[in-house]
Write a structure and sequence with these properties.
Blueprint lengths: L7 E2 L4 E6 L2 E6 L1 H7 L2 E5 L6 E2 L4 E7 L3 E5 L4 E6 L2 H4 L3 H4 L8 E5 L11 H7 L3
Antiparallel strand pairs: 1-2, 2-3, 3-9, 4-6, 5-8, 6-7, 8-9
Length: about 130
């Protein structure tokens, strides 16, 4: 299982890559492994603003549907369109081609509340 050190993490098993005031968000390798084969990613919220912890979409796997929680307040500015035709990218490459959304961050101080890779590994018992 992979947990890249350059990313931040949430208790909801999402990863966050900060690039200036943009956050690229996906689900962790641990989460995709727990969910199983992902068959559909639903994010119909591009252009909408959300507060941290609000549901912005869902991931459907063969055995379950899981809500996606926004780790940082902001506006969703992009959805990874590749996932419409290839949702399995979330399983195959969760930290690369399997990213979910990009968010224009509205409150940069919230980044401090995210977990480091070490803290996330400890939470999942790795």
């Amino acid at each position: 299982m992979s947990t890249p050190l350059n990313l931040k993490y949430t208790k909801d098993h999402e990863w966050v890559l900060i690039e200036n005031d943009i956050a690229i968000i996906g689900i962790t390798d641990f989460a995709q492994g727990e969910l199983g084969d992902i068959v559909y990613v639903e994010v119909d919220t591009v252009g909408e603003k959300f507060e941290a912890e609000e549901v912005f979409g869902s991931v459907e796997a063969v055995k379950t549907v899981s809500d996606l929680f926004l780790p940082l307040s902001g506006e969703i500015i992009e959805f990874n369109d590749l996932l419409e035709s290839e949702p399995e990218k979330v399983n195959d490459d969760p930290y690369g081609d399997g990213w979910l959304i990009k968010v224009q961050i509205s409150n940069a101080s919230q980044v401090e509340s995210l977990m480091s890779a070490e803290e996330y590994k400890e939470m999942i018992g790795e």
